[in-house]
Design a protein that fits this description.
With about 130 residues, this protein is an alpha+beta fold. About 30% of the residues lie in helices and about 35% in strands. The chain has helices at about 5-10, 30, 35-50, 105-115; strands spanning about 15-25, 60, 70-75, 80-85, 90-100, 120-129. It has a six-stranded antiparallel β-sheet with strand order 2-3-4-5-1-6, covered by helices on one side. A hairpin with a 7-residue loop joins strand 2 (about 60) and strand 3.
């Protein structure tokens, strides 16, 4: 489905929410290992999809297991949240955007890919009701 078709269905079918999950591979390691870049990403993404942020992003680095070690992100937005995990050893990012207001999934996924200099991107959507 195109972004416009997804947003039209969202409005016309009275869906409660939309979630877009974005998996990025081959990310720029300098970006996904930087608290400052990840923090600014949350701010920039909320602005890009026209969502009002609630307070500042929470960005915390943790993980004893090397496979999952990296920063995690939570940005509350008035219509729900943006979350993500950035796996240092894999140069991967896993980002979820959930909102009870429509936004363009493909354009949003492409924004994420460009922001982190990813070589690969896959995304999926789900309507929540």
């Amino acid at each position: 489905m195109t972004d416009s078709a997804i947003m039209k269905r969202y409005k016309n079918d009275g869906e409660w929410g939309l979630i877009v999950s974005v998996d990025l591979g081959g990310c720029d390691p300098k970006k996904i290992t930087s608290k400052e870049v990840i923090t600014q990403f949350a701010i920039d993404l909320a602005e890009y999809i026209n969502m009002k942020r609630y307070k500042d992003p929470i960005v915390v680095k943790f993980g004893e297991n090397e496979k999952v070690a990296g920063y995690s992100l939570v940005q509350l937005i008035e219509t729900s949240l943006i979350s993500g995990h950035f796996a240092d050893s894999l140069n991967k990012a896993f980002i979820d955007i959930f909102s009870c207001r429509e936004f363009p999934p493909k354009k949003t996924a492409q924004f994420c890919k460009k922001y982190f200099g990813a070589k690969t991107m896959e995304y999926s959507i789900a309507f929540r009701d």
